[in-house]
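User: For my dataset I need records formatted as: sequence, then structure tokens, nothing else. Please produce one.
Assistant:
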Amino acid sequence: MRIGILGNGGMADALGAQWARAGHEVVAGSRSGGTGLREAAESGTDAVLLALPYEAVVHVVAGLEDVLRGRVLVDCTNPVGGPGFGLLTAGGPSAAERVAYAAPAAHVVKAFNLCHVDVWRLTPPVFDGRPLAVPLCGDDESALSVVRRLVHDLGCEPLNAGGLDRAGLVEATAALLIGLWVGEGADAQAIAPPVEFAGVRAQA
């Protein structure tokens, strides 16, 4: 696949390197440097990853709306900030929905926002023998299929987290986890019991 990445920070480098290793053609661009954001977006004929600070994303996407028409637009941003690691989009809409409003003809999928960049550098991200699961939120099945492949190429397992209207829940989960990990130094993974204790019946 041909993947464009908007941004040149840690997330762009980690995910881009893994996808390039899997055989995809990856072009990353930034607002400064050799390759620009528009050139990177134009290169991403199969998918475009938004790997920019949340505060800049909507403005950048709106400026590239013409290029992003019909593209799979993967949003890994976290609208989290302040001393309490609060959700900057509290009250809605979510960051992913704001991206979709800025580029209404793109197919936005929320993904890859729950882990620190160091996790995406692992080959593969497997913990205690269990591959990392990556929740996806989106409304277009073809776009979701593309992102599922990108998840598999990282050695991870995609999870259906619902439509784009549920992206705010994934973003709020990131805010909670970041607050526990960074603010409290807690083992946030310990808050979720095994599925047999989750009050649901096992699937036949």
